[in-house]
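Example protein as discussed:

>
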Amino acid sequence: MNQEREELFGFDEGEKAAWGAGVGGGGGGGEGGGMSKEDMDRVNYLLSRRGKGSGKGTDNSAAFYESFDGQGVNEVGVGGDKGLADMTHIASDGSGNTTFKMVDTSPKSSTPRIATAEAKVLLPEAVNEVFLTGGGRTAKGNVFDVSRLAGIMGAKRTSDLIPLCHNIYLDKVDVKVTYVQEVGTVLIKCTSVTVGKTGVEMEALTGASVAALALIDMVKGISPEVTYTVRLLEKEGGKRLVRDGKVVGGV
């Protein structure tokens, strides 16, 4: 149960310790008896500081919460020591309210930018067998053609899907879908190109992801066990140069 909880919530070390304190220890905290009241309070407090729980636990004792302050809990939750006022996309108006904003790129000059993202779709045996015999065709139609078209459409809608992403004029989107039958994998590469003030890596990543999801939708009737991963493969223009998924230049 501990491992399942950690995978589900992504606990940090303090949260793991809070869960662990209630398992196999005193106070009725074994797996069979559940967590003790104090340990549950500690867990709920930690989760509340990361926006994952009610923060109430089983006891609203102010003394309890005050005693737990300063024990490795990050006040912001992300960004290390940065306060909200220092963040570029999320800020505080000084009255306890959080505001959101797009970064102002108006002072920047337009430059050529290109990015390529790669999605790897892992096929279960049932889907791989259909592809081997049908060349990518199923009862729904040509899976690869639909995937390519979906990738282009997805890249064009990136700013609608990613909340604070800039609306970029795309000069080119190219989606390549390659079936590697020996390992039961489909490789999808989405390349996006623009001349603009900010990069197009999110457009490439979104295009590759949507292409992969469209492929999964086309074959889910054969098997729902398809999985995929996605990564930025190359990026040029802007602050960083990326090759084969690694930053090789820039700041």
